[in-house]
Write a structure and sequence with these properties.
The chain has about 180 residues and is mainly beta. The chain contains three helices and eleven strands, in the order βββαββββββββαα.
Length: about 180
């Protein structure tokens, strides 16, 4: 079966930044493959386009330039946030404020996002809300472990369901 809309895909892969000889930043092995329903927008669109029509046992290797992955890092996604925003109960939790710390936040529209502390000032924190891989070219190489048709329930829900018959049990990385 070929990968197409409404199929459930299992794949193993290695992800490198800046090309096939770049640093490995993630490895997903065949014993616990990444599983997802194809065509519902859960992965980078260009990644899905590149694996479409592959089938079980096929291998892949391709570079996604940053523009086709998480985009370029945007200067206006680095903002200064007053420490008063972080008041828990009565006082500010100053233990949150150290360079490199990722703090989950919510924007004015209720969207969840993560900000990385770039700099700590007396009354504010400079935070970077770019995706951690923004600005990076991503090189993926891997193998299609399995492809199956999504069930009618999975199609209705827009996500795969975890059961021993559908994905090898909840010991896999499904659900």
């Amino acid at each position: 079966m070929k990968i197409s809309k409404n199929t459930v895909v299992s794949l193993s892969y290695e992800l490198r930044i800046d090309g096939k000889d770049g640093d490995v930043i993630q490895t997903v092995g065949v014993e616990r493959p990444l599983m997802f329903m194809f065509g519902v927008g859960s992965l980078i669109a260009e990644f899905e386009r590149r694996i479409e029509n592959l089938q079980t046992g096929d291998t892949f290797a391709f570079l996604l330039p940053c523009e086709e992955a998480y985009g370029k890092a945007l200067e206006d996604a680095v903002i200064e946030v007053p420490k008063s925003v972080f008041i828990l109960d009565v006082e500010t939790d100053n233990e949150l404020f150290f360079e490199g710390n990722t703090i989950p936040m919510t924007d004015a529209q209720g969207n969840n996002l993560n900000g990385v502390v770039v700099e700590v000032k007396d009354d504010s924190v400079v935070m970077d809300f770019n995706h951690p891989l923004a600005g990076d070219d991503l090189f993926f190489s891997g193998t299609i472990v399995n492809v199956r048709e999504a069930t009618p329930e999975e199609i209705k829900d827009g996500r795969m369901h975890c059961s021993p018959s559908s994905c090898g049990g909840c010991g896999s990385s499904c659900g």
